[in-house]
Specification:
The N terminus is likely disordered. The protein starts with about 40 loop residues before the first helix and ends in a 6-residue tail after the last helix. The longest helix has 29 residues. The protein is built from 13 helices and two strands. A two-stranded antiparallel sheet has the order 1-2.
Length: about 450
């Protein structure tokens, strides 16, 4: 059976997500408005602050989910320690009676983020301002005798210890945004080379960071990409050559818009969906913390698995395959590059994709992985494949980095199929790579969701 079409049908529970446009009330009008907390309950507020901090550090999206997972783990464990109901994540902390959940959330998120982003003065200043604002709104977190603050601090310290100096550290590299060495393949047809604008290879080390829930780095390694002599390769080559070109005459305006929509930062896209769900359903702190942890730990595991697979297969990008002259002196092989050696394909000098090619190997498609993983998270949390979600993405008419465009998705299937098409229309991923990404994302998410975030029996 095709793993992309065999989806279990379950009862419909429609949900239309709308972001509540509210501003957190300030307990002291003399506070600087810039320090105003984001909307939502305490967990949603600090999820938003974590997102702003991570994205503000210029972390690549695959490594950014790792930092989001650190903060989400600390918050989730702090809330679970106080309220119970779900299994903690690699945690043994306990809470005294009467500990404030809100104060625990604030402390857990603040201390975790401040530790990991201590080398960014502007980000630290923003965190300090948000922390002061939060404490002011919670009477200094003293009414419980500091019990909630103590739980949050313990949760943050536990995450930091477990991931950095404990018996099984995670191998995360510093500083943010650095490259690293990786095993190379002999230069030849099908082997990845740097692509315009020829930035250094993006965070190969992410593929070897200790997973949060998965058992190993290659637990769900996809099958290899197709042979360059296969009919599947010829079909994929011709398809993306036609539809993914910057000057494509066959790609529609709607397809171009969709391709650009999915160029948005996925950390922002999917954490926003989580907060929208929390707001629309009026989720408790416990359920909001659980959903945020699901988004970010599953997201981190999915993208770490992606980067491992990418640097394992080192498969070439469309711009390299279609235009061998796009290869320059990159230190990875001869100049110009190779054609595929298949007489059924025709290379085209000067071919360029609609969107700039990311500086990492092609297979599998990372957007396919993360989007399929998030579809699984949201359908699992909501208890239905009929997710009825609005997702914010990039609007070409707006400023850089905006999430002003909105697309609605009735089902998880709609979301999975669109991301495969979108990355092909962008000229970045062959169809088979998008399919492999979707399958990998589902596999990672299903495993993680079966082995974590479970109710206490």
């Amino acid at each position: 059976m095709n793993p992309l079409t065999q989806f279990k049908k379950i009862p419909i529970l429609p949900l239309r997500i709308a972001l509540a446009l509210v501003v957190a009330a300030l307990s002291d009008p003399s506070h600087d408005a810039a320090a105003a907390l984001p909307p939502g309950n305490t967990v949603a507020q600090w999820n938003n602050i974590a997102e702003d901090t991570v994205v503000g550090s210029s972390a690549f999206q695959s490594e950014g989910f790792i930092y989001m997972a650190y903060a989400s783990t600390a918050v989730y464990n702090a809330v679970v320690a106080i309220e119970g109901g779900y299994e903690p994540l690699d945690s043994t902390i306990t809470a005294p009676p009467g500990a404030s959940v809100d104060c625990a959330v604030v402390e857990a998120a603040y201390r975790t983020l401040r530790y990991y982003f201590s080398s960014f003065p502007v980000l630290v200043a923003n965190l300090d301002a948000n922390y002061a604002e939060a404490l002011a709104n919670l009477n200094g977190c003293t009414t419980d005798g500091g019990a909630g603050t103590g739980v949050g601090l313990a949760a943050a310290n536990e995450v930091i210890y477990n991931r950095t100096t404990g018996p099984n550290p995670d191998g995360r590299m510093t500083p943010i945004g650095v490259t690293s060495s990786f095993p190379l393949l002999p230069p030849g047809p099908g082997v990845w080379r740097l692509t315009p604008p020829f930035a250094l290879p993006q965070v190969p080390w992410v593929g070897n960071v200790r997973r949060f829930i998965l058992q190993s780095v290659d637990q769900f390694l996809p099958d290899p990409p197709p042979s360059l002599l296969s009919s599947e390769w010829v079909e994929a080559f011709n398809q993306i050559k036609a539809y993914g070109a910057s000057n494509s005459s066959v790609r529609s305006d709607e397809q171009t818009f969709i391709a650009r929509f999915w160029s948005a930062n996925v950390i922002r896209q999917y954490n926003r969906v989580g907060r929208d769900i929390a707001d629309a359903l009026g989720l408790s702190l416990l359920e909001t913390a659980r959903l945020a942890a699901m988004v970010n730990l599953v997201g981190a595991d999915a993208l770490m698995s992606t980067m491992h697979a990418k640097y394992h297969y080192l498969f070439w990008r469309p711009v390299t395959a279609i235009d061998p002259t796009a290869v320059i002196a990159d230190g990875f092989g001869p100049v110009p590059g190779y054609d595929d050696g298949n007489p059924a394909t025709v290379e085209q000098t000067g071919w360029r994709p609609l969107l700039t090619t990311p500086n990492h190997p092609e297979y599998p498609a990372a957007h396919g992985v993360i989007t399929a993983a998030m579809a699984e998270v949201f359908s699992t949390f909501l208890g239905t494949n009929q997710i009825e979600l609005d997702i914010h993405g990039f609007d070409p008419a707006g400023p850089p980095g905006n999430l002003n465009a909105v697309r609605h998705f009735d089902t998880t299937n709609d979301l999975r199929h669109e991301i495969i098409d979108a990355r092909l229309w962008a000229g970045l991923h062959y169809h088979f790579s998008g399919v492999a990404g979707v399958v990998l994302g589902r596999q990672v998410a299903k495993f993680d969701l079966r082995h974590a975030f479970r109710p206490v029996e």
